[in-house]
């Protein structure tokens, strides 16, 4: 096996040390003589592991006491429905920002539960910037944002101030930078970019919002039930939670989200600087809104995209193809992408352009 | 590490060869230079693996062409809601059999979508038998059964004939025996007993039932969307599906569900015979309805249960404690439990009783 640099947008690169620990646990979990996949979720070692993972989330993001941390299934896509159905009463207003394909899906799903007001959209320019001037509803319950737009490579560098509170899909930049949780009513994130494998979804929710809509919901869609049962109402995705645990332990040992943010800023700057410097490439994204996580770039004057992709693949730089709606290339440089990986990509860009 | 015999009710024992292959894939998937957890679900190797897993399900159970095979999230618990909300129109009747705690949960969730008729219940005798004489509604849409009751150790040896069609929660005995799929409108099963790790749910659904209720549903709860997108509407739990793939490959190499049923029958007989023979133990379950998967047993004349459990643990026979609602002991002897494991348990029972 030759290890590659994996620029996939998600599921995405994870730290090697996490993969090695996960592989061990798949065969024998901490000397229990069985795989972590074979252990009851009600057994003491698993209950402890899930509680420890909650604590690691809490520590990493300084989550205040009046929030619940849940590990659910169904990805951000299920949260698009669960959040409004649990929070929004019929006719109540929620403001949504439309900054990409995932925002648009969140809007579509929310529309069946309340009065959804789309306060801004950058769709006309293929979502290549984050709108910053927009009017919010005075009677807004919450303002929904997608903190980082994986496909288009834009990111809310500073969060808007909500007239109610923020609800954020942070699937593609959670744990990449510090955030002030107090601004948010709910933060949710699929694991498969910065946390772990596909199959577990983190939800951080302010306690007073749980059960707010007073709807009679299916048990599996009711935050109140998941919160009361500490994410163990039904069998949780134990192995996926364990990988999140190990990833957050790795993050902690590295210095936490402050250090990670410095590293991410440095990594992104190296790559964006090359895109600016190298006459062969350009960024399609407004300068102020460029993501530290997903870096789309295109040929400045056209060219054979597949040829460059093949050139990169030969060097072990893989999954750099851009999303079909943007074209060109995209380097996803999540927490676990090393500076060496970025430098190898920059070298390839330089060598290719000579 | 000392390998133990794991009699856990679920998550439960998996074949060693599956665990070893899974551990390899966690580090490097088939020489791609990255973990299976790091690979895009849209990449060719993963799309192929998921398609192959569908085919393995199809081959193992002889699934006819007019059924769709889906890999979803949320466990059987989410199916308790999804099935009636997708199939039952307002006011339509579904008959439900109440043969255990999971049946009761299925009934509770279905009640919000149609007219649920509980046709039988063995609750009064702590679910220690399967009722066989009951009246079904003439205008029934479907008859719901729990094919195997994990907690109480009962199993539908022969399935009832539905006046409509059967819908079955097969979480704890799928792939343990042949079934005639044509009797069923829907079969669903959480993976964590006979298929793989917690975090993926298999749904086999007759095509004409998809979208039948014509309800406007959240996308993630709509079978039509999952079927149209081949279980890739959102990021599926790739690793969990891979473990299912390897488990079904193991099953195939062993000879499929017919051979497995013979092995399971033999294993269960060994254990039940000992329970009958050994004056220290007895079965709380009606003889005709005893499960081939979960074998509860109790002291015939009382005794120190923890002492026997400790005696077993010292011999590497673990997670034998009975469910709190039945008491005593429970040996879950799913497909992956070896005959050696059963014999080791029988030896322990014999040695303890001397």
Structural overview:
The structure is a homodimer. Chain A is of the alpha/beta class and about 350 residues long. Chain A is built from 9 helices and 14 strands. Chain A has a 7-stranded mixed beta sheet with strand order 2-10-9-8-5-3-4, sandwiched between helices. In chain A, strands 11-12-14 form a 3-stranded antiparallel beta sheet, covered by helices on one side. In chain A, strands 1-13 form a two-stranded parallel ribbon. The longest helix of chain A has 22 residues, at about 255-275. Chain A is globular. The mean pLDDT of chain A is about 95. Chains A and B meet through helix 1, helix 3, helix 4 and helix 6 of A and helix 1, helix 3, helix 4 and helix 6 of B.
N-end to C-end Cα span of chain A: 30 Å
Helix fraction of chain A?
25-40%
Strand content of chain A: 15-25%
What is the topology, as strand order, of the major beta sheet of chain A? 2-10-9-8-5-3-4
Biggest sheet layout of chain A: 7 strands, mixed
* Quaternary structure: homodimer
In short:
Chain A has 354 residues and is of the alpha/beta class.
Q: Which labels suit this protein?
A:
three-stranded antiparallel sheet; homodimer; 9 helices; seven-stranded mixed sheet; alpha/beta; 354 residues
Could you give the topology of this structure?
The structure is a homodimer of 354-residue chains.
Chain A lengths: L4 E2 L9 H12 L16 H18 L5 E6 L2 H13 L5 E6 L2 H10 L4 E7 L18 E7 L1 E2 L4 E2 L9 E5 L14 E7 L10 E6 L16 H6 L9 H17 L1 H22 L3 E2 L11 E6 L5 H10 L2 E2 L10 E4 L6 H14 L2
Parallel strand pairs in A: 1-13, 3-4, 3-5, 5-8, 8-9
Antiparallel strand pairs in A: 2-10, 6-7, 9-10, 11-12, 12-14
Helix pairs in contact in A: 1-6, 2-6, 3-4, 6-7, 7-9
């Amino acid at each position: 096996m030759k290890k590659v640099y994996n620029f996939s947008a998600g599921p995405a690169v994870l730290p090697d040390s996490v993969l090695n620990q996960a592989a061990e646990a798949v065969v024998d979990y901490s000397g229990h003589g069985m795989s972590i996949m074979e252990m009851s979720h009600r057994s003491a070692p698993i209950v402890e592991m899930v509680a420890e993972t909650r604590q690691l989330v809490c520590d990493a993001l300084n989550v205040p006491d009046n929030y619940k941390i849940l590990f659910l299934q169904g990805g951000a896509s299920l949260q698009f429905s669960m959040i409004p159905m649990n929070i929004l009463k019929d006719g109540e207003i929620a403001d949504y920002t439309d900054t990409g394909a995932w925002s648009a899906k969140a809007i579509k799903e929310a529309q069946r539960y309340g009065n959804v007001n789309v306060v801004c959209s950058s769709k006309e320019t293929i979502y290549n910037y984050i709108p910053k001037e927009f009017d919010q509803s005075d009677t807004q319950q919450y303002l929904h944002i997608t903190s980082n737009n994986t496909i288009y490579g834009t990111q809310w560098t500073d969060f808007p101030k909500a007239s109610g509170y923020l609800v954020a899909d942070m699937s593609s930049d959670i744990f990449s930078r510090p955030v002030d949780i107090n601004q948010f009513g709910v933060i949710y994130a699929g694991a498969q970019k910065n946390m772990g494998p596909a199959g577990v979804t983190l939800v951080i929710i302010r306690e007073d919002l749980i059960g707010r809509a007073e709807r009679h919901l299916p048990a599996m869609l009711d935050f109140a039930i998941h919160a009361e049962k500490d994410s163990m109402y039904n069998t949780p995705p134990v192995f996926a939670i364990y990988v999140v645990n190990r990833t957050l332990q790795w993050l902690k040992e590295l210095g936490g989200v402050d250090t990670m943010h410095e590293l991410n800023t440095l990594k992104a700057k190296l790559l964006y600087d090359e895109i600016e410097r190298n006459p062969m490439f350009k960024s399609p994204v407004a300068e102020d809104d460029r993501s530290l996580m997903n870096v789309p770039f295109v040929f400045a004057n056209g060219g054979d995209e597949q040829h460059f992709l093949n050139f990169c693949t030969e060097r072990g730089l893989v999954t750099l193809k851009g999303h079909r709606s943007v074209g060109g290339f995209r380097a996803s440089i999540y927490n676990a992408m090393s500076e060496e990986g970025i430098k190898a990509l920059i070298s390839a860009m330089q060598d290719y352009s000579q």
